[in-house]
Write a structure and sequence with these properties.
- Among the domains are: 222 residues, 3-Layer(aba) Sandwich (Rossmann fold), CATH 3.40.50; 99 residues, GMP Synthetase, Chain A, domain 3.
- Helices cover 30% and strands 27% of the residues.
- It is built from 14 helices and 24 strands.
- Helix 6 packs across helix 7.
- The N and C termini lie far apart (63 Å).
Amino acid sequence: MNPGWTVADCVAAVARSAPDRVAVEVLSPRDRSAPVETWTYGRVWSRVETLADALSSALGPLPPGSDGPMVAILLPNSVDHLAAYLACQRIGAAAVPINNRLAAPEVQFVLSDSEAEVIVTGGSMAATASQAAGAAGATVVDVATVTPLGDGAGSRWEGPSGPEAADRLALVAYTSGTTGFPKGSTVTNGGLLTRFAQWAWTFGLSPGQVLSTPGPVFHMSYGGLSLAHLAAGGRNRLLVDFDAEMALDEYARNATWVFLVPSMTAMVAEAWEAAGKPPLDALEWLLSSGAPGPMSLLDRAFDVFPRANITEAYGWTEGGWVTYEVKQRSDLVPHSVGWPVLGTEIDVRDEQGRSCPTGAPGEVVARSLTPFGRYLGNPAATAAALTDDGFCRSGDIGIRLPDGRLTIVDRVKDMIISGGENVYCAEVERVLVEHDAIAEAAVVGLADETWGERVTAVVVAKPGRSLEPDQIVDHCRHRLAGYKCPKQVVVVTELPRNPMGKVQKLELVERLDRGSP
């Protein structure tokens, strides 16, 4: 019988067996003189139980049933952020991590859509959380008011949560929506633990590795890897904010394993060259994912990290990471993202849903040990995300190579990847047309050396109105996360359309590249 282990149970077991082992070290680039904040497993688990008590008090008695209440998390990178995930599992609630770069209206949407009863927050994010919670009717739990901070004294953990915990929701991860509104992708406790075990097996996460977490914990890539490493009993070096110069020191002296999106790798490479190319001898594994990176950057990584295995994984929120490859510098294949990971089946399909032959392009679909569950409260979108035989659609165009590797060559979805962040054009367009002087708007991604793609808005003014790019960007900043806001605004008299009236974005991109929109 399934004993019903959760990720939190795994962390608790490590804390019981090795309470003095270092679990998390927090580094702040903003204050380089500040000492590294060190948390043992015993202290981390004590904090989990303290937060669990605070959440229980805010929620009251939990209703019977398989799924508990929703608890939103809006926090910076911190031990409290990681502990909040685990505290939710401890009490049977589902964690709803919120991108801490979102504007208050976006946070309010997530709270309302998920029906989160509580939002855990603190520090500079408390004001945004309070504003959104007030409008959505959620209770605010400020971590600064939850004491003690965790002293490692004792543990009330009595063993695995039980078989009923496996099918209970553990997490709702919101992804930007192709229709202009985010959707909440769900995963159960059993699914989350299976996925993390799959990652640990594939990526070599173990107590012997020192994991660097340079990116935001609200992302299930960074947050997931951090939690998976804690469940495995490893040590985590957590950066409050990404800083390329601090990263250099980390990969020279401390961290053995890191996941970097290509834009981060580029920044580290530039800092490395500016510093005189110091040896980065500590790093043993570099995982690249999140956005397509140029071959030149991949090749450059071998020089920057001479002792590291340079690897790449491909996936998406609903499907998780589904392919993986350890790169060989002498045999780099453009656009290759590797072979299917443990327990994962990959297919490439045409518009009729038929498998494409090797070498032919089609949409990438995957069926894995941790299947996509559903979009919260959105059965139509759930059905659209799945094939009739249970594969999860990626929205990406891929080609299968003769040796079984997958290459990604294009996207079906109208989406931009800027600095590793997904930006759905429809979401930005929805905000743009709320401007009282904009008649029409189209958003495209243009090539950018630093960010991979930059969000570019092409807008048409209403009759008799004028548009100023700076005002349009300011309009977006009050309604969208900063990374979603246009970095470039182009005003035109009309948008190119086909005979059916659909905006021709490819033509727009070609015009912009020529400098004549």
